[in-house]
């Protein structure tokens, strides 16, 4: 599935709409997050009530499991009997869930519905307008023995670009990736697939690099020995190959909202706890990660506060350990896997609303039929 289409046709228009009315992408993220949580509230309610029912039914489930364990021990040397006991246990469990109207997988549905939105948000804040982006194609320069393999693809992978005033487009480089002999020329041009961006090619910066563009702090290696670039009057570019090798052609487009601030956040596209250019700590990112960690702890605290203690001491101790360890583990993983500040803001607001919704639902006891 092409999640860039969700980003282009759904996430970015929503963010732009609320940004125009509220004056900031930060407030737009908060409103979008609240809308998502409100829309998914029926699923969240069903998930939480299903979890409550499962917790209340644990003593009965434990009886079924213990009975199966006894049968498993009794028939451990009789494969046919063991298989029959397993099938009987699975049937009993399914009937038990149906009778009590619970679904052990019900908790997965809200996350499955949110996953495309999260991926689209990640794409949005990892690109334009929150960061410079590049339309990129790989170029393979062939030696004389490989010239018969010359290949030119139609266009590159679509890239989303958003201008300062909210105009947006999906752009490609034409042609796309190529295999081309040395001592030959090929001309590239930025082509608009769709959108309302005009004259964006005049703002592109062209470069040859040894890898696909991914961060403004990266300094590309000099590749003059492999190819030369010459920019044409219409801002297309001609690549003249010299010797065999692999290079990338990047058309870099500026991030028009890269320096926009919100509250204590300096740049909603900023990622990582350390700035790769200055090697200084990004305290705004670190604070967002700490707030995200707090929301995980808060949600767990609310859930356990309304949940009956487990009758199994080992399971009860394991639950306490998980409640203590999960928030810092997720926080460390978030720092190690850089997440854009805009997505972290979504996580924080979503986590706070999740805790509030859980409290609203779980304070009313569920009566099992």
Q: Can you give a write-up of this model?
A:
The chain has nine helices and twelve strands. The protein has 369 residues and is of the alpha+beta class. It has three domains: 3-56 and 102-124 and 261-362, no CATH class; 58-100; 132-253, no CATH class. The strands form three sheets. Strands 2-5-1-10-7 form a five-stranded mixed beta sheet, with no helix packed on it. It has a five-stranded antiparallel beta sheet with strand order 3-4-6-9-8, with no helix packed on it.
Topology:
Layout lengths: L2 H20 L2 H15 L1 H16 L1 H17 L4 H22 L8 H17 L7 E10 L8 E2 L6 E4 L5 E7 L3 E4 L3 E11 L9 E5 L17 E5 L5 E5 L3 E9 L7 E2 L2 E2 L16 H23 L7 H24 L4 H22 L7
Parallel strand pairs: 1-5
Antiparallel strand pairs: 1-10, 2-5, 3-4, 4-6, 6-9, 7-10, 8-9, 11-12
Q: What ranges have pLDDT less than 50 throughout 5 or more consecutive residues?
A: none
* Count of DSSP strands: 12
Whole-number count of domains: 3
Q: How far apart are the termini? A: 42 Å
The biggest beta sheet is recorded as: 5 strands, mixed
Rg estimate, integer Å: 27 Å
Spatial strand order of the main sheet: 2-5-1-10-7
